[in-house]
């Protein structure tokens, strides 16, 4: 099945893994397809993608991620709700049980890289219990040349064993699922969950720790570049449009999720994309839609007719979080290699289900730091159990679960790079207009694209702006291909007093959330956030 060229001289015994049945080293995509079908791990859909199920875990197990408290990194980690300490004693016990479980099992190994810029590239290894997760790793990371595999020595390894369950009463976990990075051992162990996204986010966590030491800002963002060579970054949490807006036919895609910003420019961490595909439209998102019809793509929890093998991308019976994992080569206008110079625009995306934030606004450097550290979006009613109305979500640096250092360390790096390279910063709301979720309507993607393109093309540089009285950002009063009334959120509400109350309510949430950063953030950043002013002052500003 394999040749010696595919097997690294840095063997599994370096992890204490022994007495396994068979090791499948660096299988290519067709070989992994054969193993997936042979082992009953998935089905092939019409035109060639492979469809898999993740069981009860259809998203990240956020409450099951820990960080080993160990001497080499203990003083660096921002401990708390994000980085929950896990004792070395519990880790050793859990790991030894995991090694015992692996005896007699088959394992799949992919040796690859994270980081398209060779100066900062990190060799990684992904070890999987299942073939389809190994294909995910092959899609998502940068593949190594076959000739170099024998000498591949990973700087970080992920060991993903979904069928091994933790015992919370013995292991100190919250449930049977666990995601535990050990920064000292440069190893992440994952068990009890089949959600493939945990693998890519584990490597992202490692890079978030290592790269800032080299003056490289690690970012949860997508990136693309225009025909003029000017790059743009799109920050945003899941569901805000980060992948959709960066996949633009008029621009070349650098990557859809994770990037570094070095002293030389920006570069993709990954070799693939992991896109949400629920209700994917071939008209609005043609490039991503086509990936769901290609050999090599993995479709997680997407509905499929068992007889015709046709997909139903609108079916959310299993989860809203249906996903496609595909290599960058599936997107026709991908930039190769996946790197560019310094960006000229930074766009921060939010899906404001309260319907009060402007569709697009211009930010000062201090406001950019404030919104970067806040990382706001909103959960929607019906997407999670118990959520009956919009719920504000704040995730520092638009990726708090994967940030190891204090958020201000990343925000300071961002501010320095914005200032040095004269970068324009924008806040774009892809959420609701005309009222909150359940009353208003979702922003039209055609208008959002028009606003983003106008910002990137410099068409908003000379238009008139007005300062939003609550959020403080500058709102353009006109934009090509967008009705002017659409730019005034307050004016789109049938009850403008209701808008005022909802806006102040959201502003208060921002202020309360930012209190956790006040000991580190400078005064000018604290003042850059929204203000809950009196009704008279607000009405005066709006007049």
How would you describe this protein?
By secondary structure, the chain is α+β, with helices and mostly antiparallel strands. The chain has three domains: 20-42 and 62-214, Phosphoenolpyruvate Carboxykinase, domain 1; 273-329, Phosphoenolpyruvate Carboxykinase, domain 2, CATH 2.170.8; 344-533, Alpha-Beta Complex (Phosphoenolpyruvate Carboxykinase, domain 3), CATH 3.90.228.20. Helix content is 25%, strand content 23%. The protein contains 14 helices and 31 strands. Strands 12, 13, 14, 15, 16, 22, 23, 24 and 27 form a nine-stranded mixed beta sheet that branches. Strands 1, 6, 7, 8, 9, 10 and 11 form a seven-stranded mixed beta sheet that branches. Strand 6 and strand 7 form a beta hairpin. The protein is globular. Mean pLDDT is 93; it is low at 381-387 and 534-543.
Main features:
543 residues, alpha+beta, Phosphoenolpyruvate Carboxykinase, domain 1, Phosphoenolpyruvate Carboxykinase, domain 2, Phosphoenolpyruvate Carboxykinase, domain 3, 3 domains, seven-stranded mixed sheet, 31 strands, disordered C terminus
């Amino acid at each position: 099945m394999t040749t010696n060229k595919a097997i690294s001289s840095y063997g599994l015994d370096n992890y204490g893994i022994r007495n396994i049945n068979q090791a499948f080293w660096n299988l290519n995509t067709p070989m992994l397809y054969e193993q997936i079908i042979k082992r009953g791990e998935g089905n092939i859909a019409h035109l060639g993608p492979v469809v898999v199920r993740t069981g009860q875990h259809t998203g990240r197990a956020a409450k099951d991620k820990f960080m080993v408290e160990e001497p080499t990194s203990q003083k660096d980690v921002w401990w708390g709700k994000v980085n929950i300490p896990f004792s070395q004693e519990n880790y050793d016990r859990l790991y030894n049980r995991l090694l015992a479980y692996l005896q007699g099992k088959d394992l799949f190994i992919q040796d690859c890289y994270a980081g398209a810029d060779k100066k900062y590239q990190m060799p990684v290894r992904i070890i999987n219990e299942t073939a389809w997760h190994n294909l995910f790793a092959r899609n998502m990371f940068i593949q190594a040349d076959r000739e170099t595999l024998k000498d591949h020595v990973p700087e970080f390894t992920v060991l993903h064993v979904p069928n091994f369950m933790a015992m919370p009463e013995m292991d100190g976990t919250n449930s049977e699922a666990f995601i535990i990075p050990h920064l000292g051992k440069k190893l992440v162990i994952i068990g009890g969950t089949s959600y493939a996204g945990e693998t890519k986010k584990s490597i992202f966590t490692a890079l978030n720790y290592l790269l800032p030491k080299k003056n490289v800002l690690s970012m949860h963002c997508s990136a693309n570049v225009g025909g003029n060579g000017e790059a743009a970054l799109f920050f945003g949490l899941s569901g805000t449009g980060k992948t959709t807006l960066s996949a633009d036919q008029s621009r070349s895609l650098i990557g859809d999720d994770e990037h570094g910003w070095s002293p030389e420019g920006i570069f993709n961490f990954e070799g693939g994309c992991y896109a949400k595909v629920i209700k994917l439209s071939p008209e609005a998102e043609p490039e991503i839609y086509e990936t769901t019809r290609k050999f090599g793509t993995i479709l997680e929890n997407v509905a499929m007719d068992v007889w015709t093998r046709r997909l139903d991308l609108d079916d959310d019976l299993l989860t809203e979080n249906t996903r496609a994992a595909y290599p960058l080569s599936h997107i026709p206008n991908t930039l190769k290699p996946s790197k560019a110079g310094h960006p000229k625009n930074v766009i921060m995306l939010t899906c404001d289900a309260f319907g009060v934030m402007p569709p697009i606004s211009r930010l000062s450097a201090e406001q950019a730091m404030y919104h970067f550290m806040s990382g706001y979006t909103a959960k929607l009613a019906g997407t999670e159990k118990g959520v009956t109305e919009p719920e504000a979500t704040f995730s520092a640096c638009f990726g708090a679960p994967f940030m190891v250092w204090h958020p201000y360390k990343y925000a300071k790096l961002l501010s320095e790079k914005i200032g040095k390279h004269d970068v324009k910063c924008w806040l774009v709301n892809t959420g609701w207009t005309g009222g909150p979720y359940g009353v208003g309507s979702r922003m039209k993607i055609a208008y959002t694209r028009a606003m983003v393109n106008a910002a990137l093309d410099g068409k908003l540089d000379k238009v008139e702006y007005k300062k939003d009285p609550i959020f403080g950002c500058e709102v353009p009063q006109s934009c090509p291909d967008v009705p002017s009334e659409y730019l005034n959120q307050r004016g789109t509400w049938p009850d403008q007093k209701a808008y005022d109350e909802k806006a102040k309510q959201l502003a208060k949430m921002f202020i309360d959330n930012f209190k956790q950063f006040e000991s580190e953030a400078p005064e000018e950043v604290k003042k850059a956030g929204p203000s809950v002013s009196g009704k008279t002052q607000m009405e005066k500003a709006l007049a």
